[in-house]
Amino acid sequence: MTTYISMLRGINVGGKTIKMADLKVLYEFLGFSDVTTYVQSGNLIFKTKKENTAAVVGSIERAIVEQLGLKVTVIVRQPVEMALIIKKNPFVGRRAVDENKLHVTFLQEKPASALVEALIPLASTSKDEYRVEGKEVYLHCPKSYGETLLSNKFFEKNLKVAATTRNWRTVNVLYSMSIQ
Predict the structure, then answer these.
(1) What is the mean pLDDT of residues 33-58?
(2) Are both 86 and 156 inside the same structural domain?
(3) Residue 133 sits in which domain range?
(4) What is the pLDDT of residues 67-107, one digit of tens each?
(5) For residue 171, with 0-12 CB atoms within 10 Å meaning exposed, 13-18 middle and 19 or more buried, which class applies?
């Protein structure tokens, strides 16, 4: 069985409301086991015999459209990937960095290198810091994520890839839940 952490983009904000209990039932209907949810923002941990990540994502996205009537982007990571994400965060342990001000933007796929390079002048006016590493963007927003230029929409628009952002605490909780 393969364990996945799924993160739905943009639910329970802006009119896309899905109850976590309904998502749990939907995932179980798809044949996933040990389905667990975390907070109301579309985080689920589950196990499946399916090993093809794209097929897993596709089945979830189709089921949400068919059964709940919403088009939602689903991004998944496996526990081993999440462990590396946590280990590689360049801002953790750095002097004067409050971990409550850290976030990770999870990208659906690795962006083109040229688009990553093109972010440098676009983000230069921000006091916040970011680092793109593979399919993740690490963020340090000393004031507030709610005020940053480096939002989820910013990265989606400029990297031309779907994304969803989670705070550092949630990233760590999801990883811990996935290895239990």
Answers:
(1) 94
(2) yes
(3) 80-168
(4) 999 899 999 999 999 999 999 999 999 988 999 999 999 99
(5) buried
Q: What is the CATH number of the domain that holds 122?
A: 3.30.70
At 56, list the tokens.
């897993």
Q: Is 12 helix (H, G, I), strand (E, B) or coil?
A: coil
Over residues 151-174, the pLDDT tens digits come to 999 999 999 999 999 999 999 999
- How far is 134 from 109, CA to CA, in rounded Å? 8
Of 78, 79, 82, 1, the C-alpha closest to 47 is 1
The overall pTM is greater than 0.85: yes
110 φ, ψ to 5°?
Answer: -70, 130
| 151 and 84 housed in the same domain | yes
Amino acid, single-letter form, for residue 78: Q
Go through 64-95 and write b for each residue having 16 or more CB atoms within 10 A of its CB, e for each that does not: beeebeeebbbbbbebebbeebbeebebeeee
